[in-house]
Specification:
Layout: H1 2-29, H2 38-67, H3 73-109
């Protein structure tokens, strides 16, 4: 029974990660966040690559968990690692938006 509960918890967490990843994909593709410096451009490329990778991993983990009745410790660990990586993406995106705003603010004061 514990595996069923863990499996449903993992599925819920993965669905939230999926929504978070989609949210950041929409935001990073928005014209509002077009890079104005090389550093911002490189950061945006890094974010887009990370989003793509996390999206693929999330999809495969969701497919696996939906297709099996057992949650193996290895898959449980993979889900937890994926959740941490998604949190790191959130932090990286917030850093990008702060850098982006600083560039905008510095251009407006000139």
């Amino acid at each position: 029974m514990e595996n069923v509960q863990d499996k449903s918890q993992c599925l819920g967490k993965l669905e939230r990660c999926k929504n978070t990843i989609q949210h950041f994909k929409i935001r990073v593709d928005s014209y509002l966040y077009e890079p104005t410096t090389m550093a911002l451009f490189e950061t945006k490329v890094h974010l887009k690559n990370t989003i793509k990778k996390l999206s693929e991993v999330n999809k495969s983990l969701l497919e696996y968990l939906k297709s099996t009745n057992d949650l193996l410790p290895e898959q449980y660990n993979m889900v937890n690692f994926h959740i941490r990586e998604t949190s790191e993406l959130e932090f990286d995106f917030m850093e990008y938006t702060l850098k982006f705003r600083k560039c905008i603010d510095s251009r407006q004061t000139v």
